[in-house]
Amino acid sequence: MDWSEPRSFREWLSRLVSLRCLLTLLIVYCLALSELRFDWVERSIGAYLVTTNPARPRSGHIWEKSRDTVIARKTLEKIVTDRQASQRSALDATNLVEMVATLPEDQGAMLSADRFRGLYRNLPDRLAADLMSPIELLRLSSSGKWARAYLRKQDGGLKIYLLDPGNRVLKEIDVLSEFLRRIEREGILIEGALEDIPGLTNRLYPAQQFFSALEALPKEARIEVLDQPETLLSMSNPVDRVGISDEALSGFIDIGFEFLENGTPKVILVQARDWAVWQLSLLLEGEDSPPPEGLTP
Q: pLDDT, tens digit, for every residue of 224-242?
């Protein structure tokens, strides 16, 4: 092979079209074409980098971006899981108090209209009417516009939004924490005697005396003292004693009905309007004077 510099154009041309040069160009062309077709160079480099990947430090923009992505995905999965758990607990709740207890602060749950009506029916009649007029609920149900209810825990209370299919608000209801405490205490069954319950120890009466005085009240007052007497009638044993609380909460007073069950005293708490309890107390104490201002029906 002549390694000297060609001295003429003919010598340049003869070397260029030589068999060795043409084979070299053909091989380079075939390698380039196969790379463009099969990307074997990139694949080989990638396979090599994969084998050395565990030994390389996990630093740099790509690693940081990947790490942030993994953290964000795990955070979102936890948020979604927590919300789904809260939603399931809210759907399993039998009353508004249980629903508020299962919801995290400033979070809510979406209920169907039928589910909300079920919660409404589980409330005592008096509490249900204070929450929302049953006639208005019937109007919304029959209108065909009400599709769902969104309940959101807020400041210890509850916000209720009745929504149409487009999630437009048909009615907004503010449920204060005092109202939730009324629901919690209404119809609660307590193990023990009346003397064991703070606030019910000062005014205790035999059941016969209490119900005789209650029967003497006007009908509207009787309903405000005991609006669901069937609760007491459904018990296997009759009421022995009745205790009336000295404190009022949002215009209501606790009344405890004590009875025996398998020889153990138990008390059912109900809530009565303060003005009606005042009229009842006058009869129980044998007094007859006009009620103080603000306690008239």
A: 888 778 878 878 788 999 9
